[in-house]
Design brief:
single chain; about 350 residues; alpha/beta; D-Maltodextrin-Binding Protein, domain 2; six-stranded mixed sheet; about 10% strand; globular; metal ion binding; metal-binding; ABC transporter substrate-binding protein; TRAP_DctP_sf
Length: about 350
């Protein structure tokens, strides 16, 4: 009996090992849907991620990237991933505001963190909170890249104050739209693809869309030669991947780890690649005669105050949003100690520095 028991035990262990080996060698073919057209640089970010996963997994996990509309329209990808139509999605989480307000905090917060600070926060506490938010919908989140700060509002005439904006009709969306409306600005939420024509035909007097490199190909500068800066409403633009939880759980552990590593690599790749392209775009804007008009300090202070009051009102109604924003504020407070100490040595050209340009 002992010999039989030993034989059965060995057979069970061999069977388990064979099953595990087969799972580890199985090839997985996934679909990744995005909210981007192929002309938007963020689509390239999704492709970079998929290529990285393919190389790290030696072809065991293959992810095919689809632009908006190829499988489902842009704003249906959340439900497509949730319902298993695709295994993954890539987006700006603020699009899912109607499902849970806290998603916006993983996208962009007015007067919030820059791309480095977002990455720091996600690495230390943010991803735990993201798993809590996404987990409510049967999804697993992964970092999806951060292309930097948005450029600002394009206008035909120079504008330096919110008071001047109060006489205009502005295209923007999300929290920024609500904040500006509270300050007396008329808002028109024109779809991104229709913004050029709206500016050209005077349907709106000013419009924002995205970062310098993402907006430049859209040609706003052809019909509006002024930009109101800085992009206070999106001080950085965090993108995220979401994975269908069932599909994720079917992966062997080493492939789950590869997804995690590829997402972190993509986060930093995106920051470096997009910020470089943002700088190139600014040079091109200047060549085309675009002027950058800074908001006065009074306007920025009023915007900051209105933003705080607005977010405070949202937080009273949504405990999860309050939890996420509190965590971000803790990081901002912590990092501010180092920011103050290290300030004054920003890498500007020699002549600029000598003439007083010490701070970003």
């Amino acid at each position: 009996m002992k010999k039989l028991a030993l034989i059965l035990s060995i057979a069970f262990m061999l069977s388990t090992a064979i099953t595990t080996f087969a799972a580890e060698k199985k090839t997985y073919n996934w679909r990744l849907v995005t909210t981007w057209s192929t002309s938007i640089p963020f689509y390239e970010t999704a492709q970079h991620f998929a290529e990285t996963v393919d190389k790290l997994s030696e072809g065991q996990l293959k992810i095919k990237v689809y632009p908006a509309g190829a499988i489902v329209p842009a704003f249906q990808i959340f439900d497509a991933v949730r319902n298993g139509v695709a295994q993954m999605g890539h987006d700006w989480p603020g699009y899912w505001k109607g499902k849970e307000e806290a998603f916006v905090a993983f996208a962009s917060v007015p007067f919030g963190m820059n791309s480095i600070e977002y990455s720091m926060w996600l690495q230390h506490e943010g991803m735990d909170l993201a798993r809590e938010v996404y987990g409510k919908f049967g999804l697993v989140p992964l970092m999806g890249g951060n292309p930097g700060q948005e450029i600002g509002f394009y206008t035909k005439k120079p504008v330096n104050s919110v008071a001047e904006m109060g006489k205009m009709k502005i295209r923007t969306v999300g929290w920024a739209a609500d904040i500006l409306e509270k300050m007396g600005v008329s808002i028109s939420p024109v779809p991104g693809g229709e913004t050029y024509l709206a500016l050209e035909r005077g349907v709106v007097d000013g419009a924002e869309f995205s970062t310098p490199s993402a907006t430049y190909p859209l040609g706003f500068q052809e019909v509006a030669k002024n930009v109101i800066v800085p992009g206070w409403y999106q001080t950085s633009c965090q993108n995220m991947f979401m994975v269908n939880e069932k599909a994720y759980n079917e992966l062997p552990d080493h492939l789950k780890y590869i997804l995690e590593i590829a997402s972190r690599e993509t986060q930093w790749w995106s920051m470096a690649e997009r910020e470089y392209e943002n700088a190139v775009a600014i040079v091109n804007y200047k060549k085309e005669g675009v002027s950058f008009n800074k908001l006065d300090d009074e306007s920025l202070n009023k915007l900051r105050e209105t933003t705080k009051n607005y977010l405070d009102s949202l937080r009273k109604k949504d405990a999860l949003l309050d939890k996420v924003l509190t965590s971000q504020e803790d990081l901002i407070q912590l990092y501010s100690n180092w920011k103050k100490v290290k300030s004054g040595v920003s890498a500007y050209p020699y002549e600029d520095y000598i003439n007083g340009m010490h701070l970003e």
